[in-house]
Amino acid sequence: MRFIRPFRRDSGAPAPDARHRRPRVPRERGPVSSRRRRLLLTSATVVSAVLVAVLALRNASGPSESGPERSATGGECGPTDLLEPPCGAWFGAFVPHDRDDLEDRVRAYEKRVGRTLDIVYTYHDMSLPEGTRREGQLLSPEEQRVGEDRMLLLSWESKWWGGTKGQQPTWKEIAAGELDESVIDVQARRIKDYGERTGKKVFLSFDLEMDTRTPDNGTPAEYVKAYRHIHDRFERLGADNVVWTWIITGYLNHAGLFERMYPGDEYVDWIGYNQYNYYRCHETDWLTFAQTQTATHAWIRKNISDDKPLMLSEFGTAADPSRPGRQAEWYGQVPRVLKDLDGVKAALQWNHRDPGPHCDLALADDAAWRSLREVVADPYLNQPLS
């Protein structure tokens, strides 16, 4: 079975001003405010300016065959306890893969973009984490090997892919502790053990795009209770190497749901959102990278958190058959826009397709790959991992 995020579409009607938002299509089934002020604000700004200037000269000729050199390690630009890169942003990707070829697929992707990924994004369900089934095992053996040189973002969904209707977990059941012994505690101990053996932390997201899962999985209040229960259970079991990442669609006609489903500052370390240029896939206008990102970014900063690190947890674009170079041009805009998005500390490219005609969001041709290769050589996206 492939490690592929089950496809979901927005369940709400598009807002009048939301040209880039997903149309209403049936989905496949499958606060406490204790804001943490950003650290090293002044020093990081100065260091970043100097670092970018130096590395720009060093990389002026573009990436070498082995990829761009990393920025100077340690010091003010080393990652924080919450895996924030103070002087720039991480680059990562979702790379489609089968059960046992994650390493090969990641290396093949990295060869084409000319560098090692900072973050590899994978997806899991809440089936019983036992036997040879990988879907229900956070930190599979393949993921752990990939994680030796990279960070991992694990998306954990309250589903049992391929299971019966009765096997599908609900938020109410999770919050009541009904999955503690069989699923949640097992995964918490796996992650804790991984941290003790390797000294590494992992990004963990519970039910990404939860705004599309209600009411099927429960009410917004039940989601918050389930999220907090998992968080507290991990803490109780000593799994303190988790960076809690709350990921929404980012479609602003769900703004009310975002506010009701935010677990609270004490339960969230990073905030992610998933925005695309779908174009012909959803019969919308062509949207630039900036048009897909800026409105949601501004809303989150105003209404959810003005200081949490943000992640473009999925971003990408369809191609335009009438203009073959248009996808490459779209990616070429990323560094300039990214640097102007306050607090965005990671950008993860979605290199796969969605179901339906014209819905392939993967890089379409050599020109698009060359463009992304140049983008990810930018010093801003090459930060020290230690």
From TrEMBL:
Transmembrane spans: 39-57
Record keywords, A-Z: Glycosidase, Hydrolase, Membrane, Transmembrane, Transmembrane helix
Domain GH26: start-end pairs: 71-378
Keyword Membrane: yes
Listed SUPFAM superfamilies: (Trans)glycosidases
Residue span of region Disordered: 1-36, 60-79
Residues at the catalytic site: E209 (proton donor), E314 (nucleophile)
GO molecular function annotation: hydrolase activity
UniProt cross-references to InterPro entries, sorted A to Z: GH, GH26_dom, Glyco_hydro_26
Keyword Transmembrane helix in annotation: yes
Gene3D superfamilies: Glycosidases
Family: Belongs to the glycosyl hydrolase 26 family.
Protein name, entry field: Glycosyl hydrolase
Organism of provenance: Streptomyces marokkonensis
Top-level taxonomy: Bacteria, Bacillati, Actinomycetota, Actinomycetes, Kitasatosporales
